[in-house]
Structure formats: C-alpha cells, structure tokens
Amino acid sequence: MLFPKKVKHRKWQTGRKSETRLASMKETRGTTVAFGSYGLKATTLARVRSNQIEAARKAMSRQLGKTGKYWIRVFPDRPFTAKPNEVGMGKGKGDPQGFCAEVKPGKIVFEVDNVPADIAREALRKAGTKLPVKTKIVER
C-alpha cells in the first residue's frame, strides 16, 4: 500500500465540514488526462484511503494484462486517526491508523494507455467501483 516515507506532523486536524464550503470545492490541478489515453475522473468529494487505492489498482491491472500501462495520479499523504472500540469520549485524539488522499471533484485518479478502448473502459470501470467517489471515464 502507498504511504509517505516521512511525515512532518504525525496527526493532522480534521478540517472543516461545512456543506456550503464543500459544495464549492473543485479541483484545480490534475484535471486533464496527461499521461495515458483514458482517465478516471472523480465527480464527488471524498477521502480515499491507501488500501482503497491499492484495491482499485489491483482490479485495474488484472484487467489490463501485461501490455497495458497505468498511472496513479493521487497519493495518500494525509494521516487519519481512530480510537479503539468501546473507549469513552475524551482522553485526547486517537492513534494514527493509516493514510488517505483528499480527492475533490474534477481530479483524475487513474490513467490507462496501450490497450484497446473497450478494455481500458472496463478496467477503469472496475477500478471506480473500489473507490468511495463517484467517477466517470474521460478520453484525452
């Protein structure tokens, strides 16, 4: 699974959850297909954990075979924490559990090349089912 080699801060703050602010959040970087011929674009906002990215990568690589090439355009660099089960409120923040990537609408998550269009679309469709965001397939 993906995770950073080193982090400056062990725990991050959660961030704002205002619905009006979240609705206006659109991605400005990484919104076009840059490396491959087909891409998987996020249409909703979510935090994608590293194990979800890995599950999508495995599903996609099985479909592509040996000739297909793919790129992962997101990296999980944000730590998330969780408290153990059946622990009361208070007593501080939970321990770091893993890493996630914040994916905003418009972000290209995966790209595919060197395969026919129908195989590329099927591989990206399968990868999209493993992610907690709604996605659509785009062409270069």
Please give a structural write-up:
There is one protein chain. This protein is α+β, with helices and mostly antiparallel strands and 140 residues long. It has a single domain, classed as Aldehyde Oxidoreductase, domain 3, CATH 3.90.1170.10. 24% of the residues lie in helices and 27% in strands. It is built from 3 helices and 7 strands; from the N terminus they run αββαββββαβ. It has helices at 19-24, 50-64, 117-129, and strands at residues 38-42, 46-49, 69-72, 78-82, 95-103, 108-113, 135-139. The strands form 2 sheets. Strands 3-6-1-7 form a 4-stranded antiparallel sheet, covered by helices on one side. Helix 2 (50-64) runs antiparallel to helix 3. The longest helix is centred in the middle third of the chain and has 15 residues, at 50-64.
Q: Uncertain segments of ≥5 residues (pLDDT<50)?
A: none
What structural category characterises the helix and strand content? alpha+beta
Strand content: 25-35%
Average per-residue pLDDT, rounded, comes to 95
Strand order of the largest sheet: 3-6-1-7
Helix content: 10-25%
Strand count, sense and barrel status of the largest sheet are: 4 strands, antiparallel
Shape: globular
Element pattern in H and E = HEEHEEEEHE
CATH superfamily: Ribosomal protein L16/L10
Over all CA atoms, what is the radius of gyration? 17 Å
Number of helix segments?
A: 3
Tally of distinct domains: 1
Structure summary, number of beta strands? 7
CATH class: Alpha Beta
Label the CATH architecture.
Alpha-Beta Complex
Q: What is the CA-CA span between the terminal residues?
A: 28 Å
CATH topology: Aldehyde Oxidoreductase, domain 3
